[in-house]
Structure of Trafficking protein particle complex subunit 6B:
Amino acid sequence: MADEALFLLLHSEMVAGLYRAAEQGEGENGRCTTKLESMGFRVGQGLIERFTKDTARFKDELDIMKFICKDFWTTVFKKQIDNLRTNHQGIYVLQDNKFRLLTPMSAGKQYLEHAPKYLAFTCGLIRGGLSNLGIKSIVTAEVSSMPACKFQVMIQKM
């Protein structure tokens, strides 16, 4: 339980620190999102490498997405993705009804506008993990009511 609290605190401080620096003229808000996404990408690559070293090869793209939703998500966020949907044409939607990084600020609707800041790292995490498994993708996040969020993964064909 202590690991989870440390991760939550580290994540919120990363977001706050980057945006605080942007407000002081050291960068732009768009660059903050890009930086958080890049950090998540690198972490995702490393985690997937560690988690899959003793795993058999995946059959297809859907098996990889199921791995991300079950094993990867459980290891990082202590629960599985609540819902995985696909159109079978390279678009997957991962829905988490109680996303851990949004839970601390989900008490009021006034924080809804700040939610995207807290999802950039996780978008990078997913994209980095998929990249290390040989899948090039674009990952976006959407929040309609806190703490639920959806991550849309668009697979790019090479």
Notes: The helical segments are 2-23, 29-51, 61-77, 120-132. The domain at 4-155 is CATH 3.30.1380.20 (Muramoyl-pentapeptide Carboxypeptidase; domain 2). Strands lie at 83-86, 91-96, 137-142, 149-155. The chain has a mean pLDDT of 86.
